[in-house]
Design a protein that fits this description.
Immunoglobulin-like; 4-stranded antiparallel beta sheet
């Protein structure tokens, strides 16, 4: 195994507090919809995983399946090389009513809380309309490196449902809420919010002018703006009931995070929510093959490591390579930093993949 550090697998497995899972995409073959992904229970061999579905969905699950590539990404996780799953939906045998097929993954020995049910939800579109109207693969993959149309259709829809559910659990009426997707890319999640019942004014902003240009031309569900590297945002004070940023704070150095947290507070309405993801312990374990002993010593001692370079925006925006970083910090560090500007309602580890979520409120 080619790794930059000498720390053992036990440390990184311990850092990941919850079982991980991911969605890869969907495809249709001979009247069957196949939904694929990866599920990593706490034990090996797939014994700690179950799949549930709403009534009327005829399906089977093939699990565990071999996926050799996972042994490199999750080198510290026993049995990762045999942790792929395939949900096979038999359309002819289904009697399900509703707009989506909904599943969830149950992990043994994990409390069945509301947050866990939201975290492990899989939402599969039932209409081909949701597979229409996407940018080219190069633009898709600037948002998430391995994205395809089929993966965005399932993952973006599932994330939209997740955001709506979390916001409503904290008192936001998502049927009428004014929402900002901060770091929207091509509208990966924002495009699906009306599909899950969000019918207020929707806005998206991103520093990538090409993706924003595409979204303005092709997506009528929201208004879109090219955003600045630093505040202010082009919105008035107290504009939004909800602001969410998936994998935005993960690329901002601590000083820049503080500047943006103050700006997020400015544009939120009193009582408004911010849902922000951060890369903490689980993300550090996931990236461990690229981390040096020196970097890890700092992270383990201080709760945050030195900023790491990211090439994702080089050539996309001016100074993107200097501005855009890979930033790791524990939930405790992230909570303390956010509390300087907003009330921290809760943190959820591994809420979006291996990223941690903070739910923040602007008090009156």
């Amino acid at each position: 195994m080619n790794r930059a550090n000498s720390y053992g697998a036990a440390l990184f497995k311990q850092l990941t507090s919850r079982p991980l899972w991911s969605l890869w995409g969907m495809e249709m073959q001979k009247g069957m919809i196949n939904v694929t992904g990866l599920a990593l229970p706490q034990d090996s061999g797939g014994r700690g995983v179950a799949f549930e579905a709403e009534d009327g969905i005829a399906f089977r699950v093939d699990y565990p399946l071999p996926y050799p590539g996972a042994a490199d990404m999750y080198w510290y996780w026993p049995g990762a090389e045999r942790a792929a799953f395939r949900i096979v939906i038999d359309l002819a045998a289904c009697s399900h009513r509703g707009d989506f097929y909904r599943f969830r993954i149950r992990f043994k020995d994990v409390d069945d809380t509301e947050n866990e049910r939201i975290r492990t939800q899989i939402v599969v579109p039932k209409t081909l309309q949701l597979l229409q109207n996407f940018p080219c693969h190069e633009s898709l993959q600037r948002v998430q490196r391995f994205d395809s149309i089929s993966s965005v259709a399932v993952r973006g829809l599932s994330d939209a449902y997740r955001i709506k559910s979390i916001a409503e659990n904290h008192g936001i009426d998502m049927s009428t809420a004014t929402v900002l997707d901060w770091g929207c890319g091509h509208g990966r999640v924002l495009r699906f919010l009306p599909e899950v019942g969000c019918h207020g004014r929707l806005h998206g902003i991103d520093i990538d002018p090409e993706n924003i240009g595409w979204a303005r031309e092709h997506l009528e569900v929201a208004s879109f703006d090219v955003g600045p590297l630093y505040p202010p945002l082009p919105y008035a004070e107290s504009s939004f009931d909800l602001l969410y940023g998936i994998s935005v704070m993960t690329h901002l150095s601590p000083d820049v995070q503080r500047v943006w947290l103050a700006e997020i507070r400015r544009v939120l309405k009193p009582g408004g929510l911010a849902l922000l993801t951060f890369t903490g312990d689980s993300a550090t374990a996931f990236a461990s093959r690229r981390l040096t002993d020196e970097w890890l010593r700092v992270y383990l001692a201080e709760g945050q490591g030195p900023d790491l370079p990211s090439e994702d925006l080089v050539g996309v925006v001016e100074n993107g390579g200097d501005y855009y970083r890979n930033v790791h910090q524990t939930v405790q560090i992230a909570r303390a930093r956010c509390a300087e500007h907003l009330t921290v309602l809760e943190s959820q580890e591994c809420a979006f993949g291996y990223q941690d979520l903070l739910v923040l409120r602007k008090d009156t």
